Amino acid sequence: xxxxxxxxxxxxxxxxxxxxxxxxxxxxxxxxxxxxxxxxxxxxxxxxxxxxxxxxxxxxxxxxxxxxxxxxxxxxxxxxxxxxxxxxxxxxxxxxxxxxxxxxxxxxxxxxxxxxxxxxxxxxxxxxxxxxxxxxxxxxxxxxxxxxxxxxxxxxxxxxxxxxxxxxxxxxxxxxxxxxxxxxxxxxxxxxxxxxxxxxxxxxxxxxxxxxxxxxxxxxxxxxxxxxxxxxxxxxxxxxxxxxxxxxxxxxxxxxxxxxxxxxxxxxxxxxxxxxxxxxxxxx
Length: 284
Known about the structure:
InterPro entries: AB_hydrolase_1, AB_hydrolase_fold
Structural class: alpha+beta
Number of helices: 5
Number of domains: 2
Protein name: AB hydrolase-1 domain-containing protein
Order of helices and strands: HEEEEEEEEEHEHEHEH
Radius of gyration: 24 Å
CATH superfamily of the largest domain: Alpha/Beta hydrolase fold, catalytic domain
Distance between the termini: 38 Å
Strand order of the largest sheet: 1-2-5-4-3-6
Number of strands: 12
CATH topology of the largest domain: Rossmann fold
Mean pLDDT: 89
CATH architecture of the largest domain: 3-Layer(aba) Sandwich
Pfam family, one: Abhydrolase_6
Organism: Naasia aerilata
Domain AB hydrolase-1: 176-268
């Protein structure tokens, strides 16, 4: 009986150790997922390989993936953000490779690059749009947040406030400016807390729209002071979630006449589950 009791105790201790290890592992994975979502990234993953550059032909051969196979013109960042090129149409495809046209190399040495990443941005500055603009600062509860003010072609009381997504900058919104300007809108492209340009919050973490919307409200006040009477809010990704928060929680929400969303986060549960799968975390 004593031997059997010792065996049972040994099994219990082993099971307890396994359970503890599993709990520690689950806790570590959970922490990793949470930090991935709320902490602004210090570095961006470069998931596209650069195999070769043909400067005479103006082409680059890249690894084939979901981004490199997309039609259209895109930004391509390399050298951990130290280099930037603009890539155009696909001109050839091979086994595991894709060849794209090089439209421009703005800075850096693309020929020396070994990897990079695609971005939905195309423009780096409002200068490239060929229209007047003003660099302004929006007063927020944390301080002055940089923004670009791009006036409509003719004086207008219709404004659109454009809010970029998570881990990006206001350059992301530049592609929407020509559409709104042609429709008679003045565009205000804002920065917000913890995006690397606006003043950070004390914890320096994203709150997934739960606090960022206050900076959108500050932008609405700024627009009103400049003569806006009709305000449209536009947001990309997490910026879409932030816009929705502002439209439902701001004391100025009655002034918002329309909302435009591009790939918005409307359900954080689904987003977090997706992030968990990417991190290969266990279901429970």
